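[job 4471] stage=fold_predict status=RUNNING
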Amino acid sequence: MIAGVVPCAGASERMRTPKALLELEGATFVETVVARLRDGGCDPVVVVVPEAAAIEAAARATEATVVGNHDPGEGPITSLRLALAELGSSPEGFLYLPVDHPFVRSETIGQLLKAAEASSAPLVLPMYAGSRGHPCFFRSALFEELNDPTLEGGARTVVHRHLARAELVAVDDPGVLADIDTPHAYADALSARAGSS
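[job 4471] inference complete, writing structure tokens
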């Protein structure tokens, strides 16, 4: 079993509105990201939300498992740990896909899952145009490190510790690099989508 984890408890300070509730082709970002993970083969999918009724409602509408993060001040690692606590020791690993990466394709998720199943690497990371992106696969062997209260730098630190042993998967999906983090990035992404349709 490989789970999907969607953190969306951040303050969205640069966007100035909750990124989870932004819309893409008639669906919220959180709906889109959960659907991509599920269609790609992740089960279960856990969404971590802040104390915000609208975000929680949007997350619950996806029928994913929803976990509340009432103290997200330390950053995304707090959401990741809450998701791990919810998942317990049953999954082989999980794909971590932030809610501000809604353009990742389901086919890419499936490609990463196949690579994870065929490898014993602790990490599986997508590569596009020579750059690493999201989602990241963390094998269960890394759960203890991710939960270490002395960890500084969050999941990024764990990625860098094990990068030499990671499975890097070339994908034909620019969405793995598309971090929709500002109003300008959102407007550009919508414009690009409209221009390609």
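[job 4471] summary: The chain has a mean pLDDT of 93.
[job 4471] exit 0
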